[in-house]
Specification:
Strand content: 15-25%
Number of strands: 18
Radius of gyration: 25 Å
Oligomer: single chain
Largest sheet: 6 strands, parallel
Shape: globular
């Protein structure tokens, strides 16, 4: 057995059934062995940025390990932005990167792939001998199983072709993720703080989603009459709870911050970093005691002081904390009608009719387009949002029922990740339609792998909010009193482009043309493969959050 076959065996034993790849000289043996001997579905992609983004999207929407195969040198460096995005998200992505043969110092594709991977993915190593096969697989897969983020495992060509140790079989020796709980004394301090609180509130983030903490968050909310807000990545978490306030911060629905203003003394933060976007630059935590629950000790104090820091798994820690709280507060607190009315009024304001702007060129107010989509899409919807300025509006106006069905690909603040993530979602959620709401500049960045969606007949509806520009930059230039023409960039007719790729396309130029949107969405359902909706929006409209974000990034 060769080393590359042993790696293939290990992936098979780990339950891997799907991988994403762009073939090169240094990964083709492994690619073919996975597909032929283990019958894994190895999906060929068009660019390495998307190979890793698709693997990442696959894990974000329910797939197990996201396995990405790239070749040496530029094959790995092409994946740079996707590696960082996966690291920010702590996605369980295993990047198997071909590498020049050990000792080949004159290979034109030679770079320090370990340093590159450590910098961009957070972890990288090289398999230097067949004798270290077990140790390196344990190191890589153990990190992934412990939910620590992506790993780049470099595989030199000559090592791949070595004989594996005689009688080798895959026997993992790593420890997986074990949900930890803080000490009883720490839980007692937090419980006393909550028992003495007059008006606590809960903010839940991605850590709460990963640990499956929605049910216990709802129970604690009902017991303490604590309203619930989420971070943007956790959008939709606890959406069915009576005291749910949606997403906190400028990219939310605008309910949470006004409700909590003057009516919250203790904040329970569950698996959230309390960054500037969630806290609206500190407004959310100002003057409040913070009880922070996170499994990562580096999360405490990263953005704001935690008065009580509870290191542990979100769900397990909350369940233990709730037991301590019930000893001090045995019965649920009475309903707070003032709080309930404030939340209801906040949602009424968010859903109120909007006076849409009329564009001189007749294009569509983006808020109208998104609200129409929100009205027409099924209640159970799998959504990948992308883009800058247009993406902000999707976050604010599109309803999501569960964070398992949602992702906004802005982890690294990077454009160009949306299509790959959406394709990965479609592979992970077989039998479900994926709605990818993006923008023209974003979509053009990774157009090549639209063909991957077409060739695999993925059930995707891609809505391109097309302002023929980079919208955020356009507004930035206007505020600086600089010519906005420099941010404008003509895009093709995306409906015709989709047809050229073998997909289906529809174009909407005016508010009146949106009358045809229901029929287009219906035709998308019956079409075998992706459908593109090119929605020409009024690029002059600026979302109120736009300049808040621009100033924060300066």
């Amino acid at each position: 057995m060769k080393v590359y076959q042993a790696i293939s065996d290990a992936l098979h034993a780990e339950g891997v059934t799907m991988a994403f790849a762009l073939m090169g000289d240094a990964n083709q043996d492994l690619f073919v062995d996975m597909a032929e001997r283990h019958r894994m579905e190895v999906v060929s992609c068009r660019h390495e940025q998307n190979v890793v983004a698709i693997a990442d999207g696959y894990t974000r929407f329910g797939g197990d390990i996201g396995v990405a195969l790239v070749t040496m040198g530029p094959g790995l460096t092409n994946a740079a932005t996707s590696l960082v995005a996966a690291m920010y998200r702590r996605s369980p992505v295993l990047v198997l990167a071909g590498a020049p043969s050990l000792g080949d110092l004159h290979n034109p594709q030679l770079i320090d792939q370990v340093a590159f991977g450590q910098l961009l993915a957070g972890a990288a190593t090289t398999l230097e001998t067949s004798q270290s096969l077990d140790a390196q697989l344990d190191r890589a897969l153990g990190r992934i199983r412990r939910r620590r983020g992506p790993v780049v495992l470099n595989l030199p060509s000559n090592v791949q072709r070595m004989e594996a140790p005689k009688g080798w079989s895959y026997r993992p020796n790593y420890s997986g993720y074990l949900p930890a709980v803080p000490r009883a004394e720490e839980l007692s301090v937090a419980a006393r703080c909550l028992a003495e609180s007059k008006s606590p509130a809960i903010v839940a983030g991605q850590g709460a989603v990963r640990s499956g903490a929605a049910k216990i968050i709802g129970a604690l909310s009902a017991h303490l009459r604590a309203p619930i807000a989420t971070t943007l990545p956790a959008k939709g978490l606890c959406a069915g709870e009576p005291l749910w306030m949606g997403v906190s911060g400028g990219l939310g629905e605008g309910v949470a911050l006004p409700v909590l203003d003057g009516s919250c003394d203790v904040l329970i933060v569950v698996g959230a970093s309390l960054n500037q976007w969630t806290t609206h630059h500190g407004d959310l935590v100002k003057g409040r005691q913070v009880i922070q629950i996170d499994r990562d000790e580096q999360a405490f104090g990263a953005y704001h002081l935690a008065h009580v820091a509870l290191q542990g798994d979100a769900r397990a820690t909350l369940e233990a904390l709730f037991e301590h709280v019930r000893r001090l507060v045995p019965s649920p607190r009475p309903a707070n009608q003032v709080l309930e009315r404030k939340i209801a009024a906040g949602w009424d304001a968010h859903r109120a009719p909007i006076e849409y702007e009329t564009a001189p060129d007749g294009t569509i107010d983006p808020r109208l387009a998104i609200r129409e989509l929100d009205r027409l899409l099924p209640e159970k919807r799998v959504v990948v949002a992308a883009g800058g300025h247009a993406g902000y509006l999707v976050c604010q106006f599109l309803r999501i029922g569960s964070p398992a069905d949602w992702n906004y690909t802005i982890d690294f603040g990077a454009l160009g990740q949306g299509l790959g993530t959406a394709i990965g979602a479609a592979f992970a959620r077989r039998g479900e339609r994926v709605y990818h709401l993006t923008a023209d500049g974003e979509f053009m960045m990774n157009l090549a792998d639209f063909h991957t969606a077409v060739t695999n007949a993925l059930p995707m509806t891609i809505v391109i909010l097309n302002d023929q520009a980079f919208g955020q930059e356009r507004h930035d230039l206007a505020h600086k009193k600089l010519p906005v023409e420099y941010a404008k960039q003509l895009s093709p007719d995306f409906a015709r482009l989709a047809e050229g790729f073998g997909a289906q396309g529809f174009r909407f130029d005016t508010p009146e043309s949106l009358a045809g949107l229901p029929a287009a969405l219906e035709r998308a359902e019956s079409f075998r493969g992706p459908t593109v909706l090119d929605v020409r929006i009024n690029g002059a409209y600026e979302a109120p959050v736009s300049q808040e974000i621009a100033k924060a990034l300066m």
